[in-house]
Specification:
Layout: E1 11-12, E2 17-18, E3 23-24, E4 29-30, E5 34-35, E6 40-41, E7 46-47, E8 52-53, E9 58-59, E10 64-65, E11 69-71, E12 76-77, E13 82-83, E14 109-111, E15 116-117, E16 122-123, E17 128-129, E18 134-135, E19 140-141, E20 149-152, E21 157-161
Parallel strand pairs: 1-4, 2-5, 3-6, 4-7, 5-8, 6-9, 7-10, 8-11, 9-12, 11-14, 12-15, 13-16, 14-17, 15-18, 16-19, 18-20
Antiparallel strand pairs: 20-21
The structure holds coenzyme A.
Length: 173
Amino acid sequence: MQCRDVSELASIAPDVSLAPGVRVSAFVNLYGCEIGQDSRIGAFVEVQRGASIGSRCKISSHSFVCTGVVIEDEVFIGHGVVFINDRHPRATRPDGAAQEEGDWQLERTWVRRGATVGSGAIIMCGVEIGAGAMVGAGALVTHDVPPGAVVAGHPARVRRIEYVAREGSVARD
Ligand SMILES: CC(C)(COP(=O)(O)OP(=O)(O)OC[C@H]1O[C@@H](n2cnc3c(N)ncnc32)[C@H](O)[C@@H]1OP(=O)(O)O)[C@@H](O)C(=O)NCCC(=O)NCCS
C-alpha cells in the first residue's frame, strides 16, 4: 500500500493558524486554534477552538487541549493529558433542552513558558501552571502550580521547587 501524505490523514480546519515549521502527525483534529512556530503535535491530539499553543512546544499523542487553554512557548505536554474547561458539566439545561454555548461557564487555564505536564495528567479548569514547573505523570492538578515547582499526586501537591523558570513568561491576565 502506498503511504499517503500525513496532511491527508489529519483534520485541520481552514480557520487554524499554523506558524511556520509546525509539524503535525496523522489523525490530529485541529479547529479554530493557534499553534506557534516549530511546535510538534502528536497523533490523535485534539486542539479546540480558541485554544492556543506557543512556539517550540511538544504536544504528545492522545492529548486533549480544550477551548480556553493557553499554552505558552517551550511547553512539553505528555501523552494523554486532559484539560478541562467546565467545572459543572451538564448535557442539558434545567428545562431538558440540549445545552448550547452560553449555557455553561468557561474557565480558562494557563500553562506558562517552559513547563512540563506529565503523561496522563488531568488539569482542572481555572488553574495556572507556572513557568518551568513539572507536573508528574498521572497528577490531578486542582490548584495553581508555582513557577519551577514539581507537583504530583491526586490531588497534586508540591514536592519541591526545582526547575529554574526562563525569562519571558507573561503575568496572568
Ligand atoms: C514527578 C516526577 C518528575 C518526579 O521525578 P523524580 O523527582 O525523579 O522522582 P523519583 O522517581 O525519585 O520518585 C520520588 C518519589 O515520588 C514518587 N513519584 C514519582 N513520580 C510520581 C508521580 N507521577 N505521581 C506520584 N508519585 C510519584 C515515587 O514513587 C517516589 O516515592 P517514594 O520515595 O515513596 O518511593 C516524575 O516521576 C514524573 O512523573 N515525570 C513525568 C514523566 C512523564 O510523564 N513523561 C512523559 C513523556 S514519556
